[in-house]
Every structure is written in structure tokens, then in C-alpha cells.
Amino acid sequence: MDFPNTLLSRLVLLAALISVDGAVLVAIPHSAPFLGAFARISIVSYAVFIGLGYSYHKRQRERLPFSIGFFFAHAVCITTLSLVDIIRLHGTSDSTFVPGGFVSLRLILISGILMLALACIPLRVWIRTIRQTGWLWSYAVVTGAIAWCLRFPLESLWDSSGNTPGRILRVLTFHSVKVILRALIPGITVDPQSFVIGTPRFSVYIAEACSGFEGLGLVLVFTVLWLWYFRKESRFPQALLLIPCALICVWLLNIVRLSALILIGSAGAGDVAMVGFHSQAGWIAFTTVAFAFSMATRKLSWVRRAQPRAPALYTYPVAATTGAVVLASQPESPSEEVGESPATPAYLVPFLAILAASLISKAASGHFEWLYPLRFLAAAVAIWRYWPEYRKLDWRISWAAPLAGALVFVIWLTPSLWTKSPAASTLGESLAALSCAARWTWIAFRVVAAVFTVPLAEELAFRGYLARRWIKFSNPDFDRIPFSSVTVMSIALSSIVFGLMHGHQWFLGILAGIVYAGLMKWKRRLSDPIAAHATTNLLLAVWVLLRGDWSQW
């Protein structure tokens, strides 16, 4: 399936682009109110329309054009909306600033979404799809409306007022933490009325969100989507039994998280407990459950459905031709499962190792991430593990690589140089508080990671894997695709994901991803964007150390 051209892929692309619009709009405080119920109902309805109509959408093989004109009209609408809200934010909060108030703003938003929908999928295809799927559109709208209505009773699950049945989850979490703490330490303080629990040295308020409902929701969405995506490889209804198991596990881990939070704070590490552990432990728990769930669906024989294929020797393109990692393999038997390319771990594991290490280091840190060297060590081990595969890449580097890296460096600094007000950062003060040896050891690890392990891991994941994976989304053998074959759409989508990984600097991250991916397509190898990325990070390191602009780190 050519990812950017078929009906199903365009529906997915439309959802991704609308998500980017939403990220831009919600960043402006005055935008959130007029999204309201419209956004919630639309998201659910669109998901249902794609999910229930998946079989029909997938059968449509017509290659669809992309309308630049409609896309430009959409960009004008979103830009106008953003500018109006910025003016209102810094000027007046009166909703009548725009004729018609919120009504006019919503009309601009709807017009922009309609223009984007027509840019991705021609009107004739929309009409044909709606006709041939019958009443699917109405089912989707009704489902979205019902989901929005259910939001109110579901929110009562963490309602702290009155004696509503929704307090059960919160009360159960509170008393479960109390049982664990009493078994571990003496003299805990408990106030069931205010939901405060701890020790004389450190206590916490178990708020509504701490009841574990957020984790339950994330795991529920993940498990349902995972089983839907791998429905052909899973046995039903056996696979459905894994969902309640995952929900129970994430709720129990939330109780462990709250108990550990109090223990860490009582031990005298209040900053670590409230700054690092509090913010990261939840994500660690979710990641652990999600990983265990995915492994269970792939490894448990009573859940996994074997997918037979005829034995054949797959010969991947050699590095001299495409720059791809060569991992040729021959199935051991006709019953071997069809799955991801054997090259996938080589491209993804180093980046995943950095993510895992960052969760651990942040969870064990307060305002200063003193365990940052753990990121470098985790990535270095992963790279060493797969180094025989990386040696098969074309490691030639052209003159364009450092120039591209310098260009991204200039782009990255432009906002702070333009405003002449670098973002505030406490990193410099934290480093100054360390001893000379500890300070320069930390800085050395930071620079070495930025110049060596981070560029290699991120380029392997985003340019080497993601940009090519989205060209032939249904074909797991992405490594058979030459680096020069990446399309404009796959570059854009992989760059968007890359940008979102950079937090509040997401827009600069997207621009950087586009430059690196364009360089890869031009030079037909991955070594050039790796070198360009390393150049950018090296220049940033020099800038930070010479100018003391710690916000760039």
C-alpha cells in the first residue's frame, strides 16, 4: 500500500494533520474554549468512521491526488484563527472582538478543516465513500455524541464531593496505599476526609487524578488499538482477556507509585519525589504494562495466531546500492510468522534505550537530572549490540552534511536571538553547585551523548526507519526501500513525529527533521543526516558552554 496515495492512508494523513492543527491551536489559551464539544465529538466520530469502515477503505486502491490549493486555503484559515487569538490574548478578552464571537471562530475552524479534508481526499471520493458505506457516517456521529455525553458520568469516577459511587476508585486507592505503608513503616499519618496520607516528615494529597483513572484510560486505549491493529495475528476472544489483566496491572502499579513516592519523600528526598519521580513514574508504569501486553500478544500461543508462509530466502539490497542495513534471513520452517523486518531492532533499539534511560534518570532526579549519563550508557550498549549491522551502512560523508547541520543550528537559535530573551533555565545554577570534577564529568557525558549516540539513535529511528516505513506502510520490509525513495509525505510525517519529541520546541524540531530527511534523500544514504545532526548538536554544545545559554540544553 502506497501510504500517501490510497483512501485509507489519506484518512490517516488527514487525522495526523488535524492533530497538528490542534496542537497549534491549544497552545493559545483563548483557543481552547471554542474547540469544546466540537473537538471531542469529531475525534470519536472520525475514529469510528475509520475503524468500522476499515475493510472498505482498505479495498480502495485508487491513487488520490493532493490539492495544494485547498491545503493553502486551510493554512490561511488556521493562520487567521491563530493570529486573531494571539491579538485577543494580548489585547482584549472580549469575545465580541471578532464579529459573532466564538461563532465566527468556529466557522473559521470548520472551514479550515473542510479545506484540509478536500486537500487530502477529492470531493467525489468523499461522496462515493459516504454513499457506499451507507449509514456508517450517522453511526459514527451518534457514537461521538454518546461518548461526549458519557464524559460527565465518567468524570464522577474521581468526584470528591458528596457520597457518589464514583468515589469508590479514589477511596480504594487511598486505603490500598495505607495498607502498603503500614506494612513497611510505622507511624504513618492518615486523614481519610481530606485524602492526605504520609509520615510526619512527608505527606501527600491523593487528588482525583491520582486515583489511577488516567492510567486506566491510557492502557484501555492502547490495548484496544493494539488488538485491532494485530487482529489478524490474534485469537479471539482469548486475546480480550488480556485487557482486564493490563488494567489491573496498571492500577496496582499506580498504588505502588504512590507508596514509593511517600517513602522517597520520607527518606529526605522531597525534590526527587515531587519533581522527578512523581512526573515520570506514571509513564514508566504505563510503558511497562504496554510492553508486557505487546509481548504477551506476540509470545503466548493461546493468544497468538500463527501466520504460515512458504520458506524463502529474502535477499535485501546491499549497502553499496541503497545504504540499507543487510539482515538477510531464511525462515526456519513454513510456519514461521510474518512480522516486522529483522532490521527493525537495529533501527529502533538505540532510540528506545535512550527513552527508557531518560524515564529512569528523570524519575530519580529533582530539578537537576544528575543521572543524565545513564542515557549515554544505555544508547552506547544498544549501538554496540547492533554495530555489526551498522558497519554495513554506507558511511561516506559529503560536504553538505556539516553545512546542513550548521543551517539547523542557525534555525534553532533564531527564536532566542530574535527576541533577545533566552528561556530561563536552572541548569547553570545546578551545575555550579556541583564539585568541579562532578560538573565537568556531567558536561562531558552530555557533550559526547549529543554528538555521538543521540544523532545516531535518532537518525536511525526517524529517518532510517520511520521515513521509509511510511512509504509502504503495509510492508514491514522497510529496509528494502532505498533512502532516496522517501517521499514528501513520509518526510513530513516523520518530521512531525520528530518535532513533537522536542516538547515546546516542536516547530523547530519539525524544521530540523525536514532538513535532515531532505539531505538523506539527496545524498541517498543515512550517514549524511547523522553527520549533520552531530554537527548541529556540537555547535549547540559550543554555544552553551561559551555563552552560558543553558536553555539550549
* Strand order across the largest sheet: 1-2-3
Q: Calculate the terminal CA-CA distance, rounded to whole Å.
A: 40 Å
Overall, the morphology is globular
Q: How many distinct folded domains?
A: 3
Secondary-structure element order, as H and E? HHHHHHHHEEEHHHHHHHHHHHHH
User: What's the average pLDDT?
Assistant: 79
Strand content: under 5%
Unreliable residue runs: 92-100, 162-166, 309-338
Largest sheet composition: 3 strands, antiparallel
Structural class: mainly alpha
Q: Helix proportion of residues, in percent?
A: 55-70%
Characterise the protein shown here.
This protein is an all-alpha fold and 553 residues long. It has helices spanning 7-26, 32-52, 54-59, 68-90, 102-120, 123-132, 136-155, 167-184, 213-229, 242-266, 270-299, 319-322, 344-363, 373-385, 387-390, 400-419, 427-432, 436-469, 488-500, 506-523, 527-547, and strands at 189-191, 196-198, 203-205. It has a three-stranded antiparallel beta sheet with strand order 1-2-3.
What distinguishing features does this structure have?
globular; 21 helices; mainly alpha; 553 residues; 3 domains
Describe the structure concisely.
The protein is mainly α.
Topology (SSEs and partners):
Elements: H1 7-26, H2 32-52, H3 54-59, H4 68-90, H5 102-120, H6 123-132, H7 136-155, H8 167-184, E1 189-191, E2 196-198, E3 203-205, H9 213-229, H10 242-266, H11 270-299, H12 319-322, H13 344-363, H14 373-385, H15 387-390, H16 400-419, H17 427-432, H18 436-469, H19 488-500, H20 506-523, H21 527-547
Antiparallel strand pairs: 1-2, 2-3
Helix pairs in contact: 1-5, 2-7, 4-5, 8-10, 9-10, 9-11, 10-11, 11-13, 13-14, 13-18, 14-18, 16-20, 16-21, 18-19, 18-20, 18-21, 19-20, 20-21
